[in-house]
Amino acid sequence: MPCISLVGWCEAQLQRVPPDLFCRQTLLLGDGFQLQPGRFIWRLKRSADVVVAGSLLLLAAPLLLMAGLLIKLQDGGPVLYRQVRSGLYGQKFTIAKLRSMRPNAEQHGARWASRGDGRITPLGHWLRRTRIDELPQLWAVLRGDMSLIGPRPERPEFEEELERAIPHYRLRHWLRPGLSGWAQVCYPYGASLEDARAKLSYDLYYLRNGNPLLDGLILLKTIRLVLLARGALPLDASPQHCQN
Q: Which of 16, 47, 197, 219 could pair covalently with 201 via S-S, beta carbons 3.0-4.6 A apart?
């Protein structure tokens, strides 16, 4: 009778790996190591990132201009906001997004967005649902700070707590962070420590199983989320297998 490891069962049945079951040996035996810098698939992925991100920026330019105008007319505040995020191997870089919150929304400190968050503007709700606010991050893809597909880049302000509370959290830094990813399309926007733990389980799956076919599936799921306007808004959810 064939035997399968618990990690293998979770991957096959749930398409995720709970952090408590993970170990470095588990990662070394996975195919996702091909996405490490210097590997052929990594170079192929980087080439695709540049071509697709450049094309999307050109196509999205009118939409970005229109969204920027609406943001400016809404309250007169800045169109873009910038944040420092953690990237490949934990290196810090700056991303830009279309502003979806009120000016000075974090004057009392950084915190996760929550359901019914009063800091989010009416226009910002729509920008987040359609993920249009993420489009300026394509510049980070062209710069090489991000990839189109990979773990979501987290804010350093939150990571210190997450690394203390969640086993193997730093492993997600072994890949270039992405504009979209397996965790983003399989689990709603996270707004708590438990959400971060659940999303890491999908990131660990991607670390072990990342390949061009999985990237293509993530891209298709991302397009569906955008068309259905199911973007970055906190939802009630529990970890489960990724639905097709």
A: 16
Separation of alpha carbons 117 and 106, rounded Å: 12
Domain-wise residue ranges, the chain: 6-227
In the 8-state DSSP scheme, what is residue 234? B
pLDDT digits (tens, 9 = 90+) for 178-218: 999 999 999 877 778 888 999 999 999 998 888 889 999 99
DSSP string, 90-125: G-EEEEEEE--B-TTTTTT------TT-TTB-HHHH
Report DSSP state, residue 89.
Answer: G
* Cα 221 from Cα 166, distance rounded (Å): 27
Quick: pLDDT tens for 82-107.
999 999 999 999 999 999 888 877 76
* Of 236, 239, 233, the residue nearest 186 (C-alpha): 239
Question: Tell me, what DSSP letter sits at residue 241?
Answer: P
Q: Three-state secondary structure along 135-191?
A: HHHHHHHHHCCCEEECCCCCCHHHHHHHHHHCCCHHHHHHCCCEEECHHHHHCCECC
Contact 18, 10 (CB under 8 A): yes
Buried b (16+ CB within 10 A) or exposed e, 74-90: eeeeebebeeebbbbee
The pair of structure tokens assigned to 168 is 């193997």
Nearest by Cα to 37 from 150, 185, 180, 197: 150
Q: Which of 183, 218, 234 is nearest to 17 (CA)?
A: 183
The string of pLDDT tens digits covering residues 27-81 is 666 655 555 666 778 888 999 999 999 999 999 999 999 999 999 999 889 999 9
